[in-house]
C-alpha cells in the first residue's frame, strides 16, 4: 500500500507553494535547549 503525500498550507491560496512552506517558523526554544537538541540530532541518537 502506497502512502499519499500530505500537504498543509497555512493560508488558503498558497497551493502547496514551496516558497511558503518554511518562511514563518518561530523558534520558541531557549539557546540551551536548542544546543542540546542539535547535539543529540547530529550525533545520530534517538532524541526525545
Topology:
Blueprint: H1 31-42
Structure explained in plain terms:
With 48 residues, this protein is mainly α. It is built from one helix and no strands. The relative contact order is 0.10. The model has no long low-confidence stretch (mean pLDDT 80).
Helix content: 25-40%
Largest sheet: none
Straight-line distance between termini: 29 Å
What share of the residues does DSSP label as strand, in percent? under 5%
N to C succession of SSEs: H
Low-pLDDT stretches: none
Structural class: mainly alpha
Q: Please, how many helices?
A: 1
Number of strands: 0
Nearest-angstrom radius of gyration?
16 Å
Overall average residue pLDDT: 80
Shape: flat
Which structural traits does this protein have?
single chain, 48 residues, 1 helix, 25% helix
Give the structure's gist in a few sentences.
This protein is mostly helical.
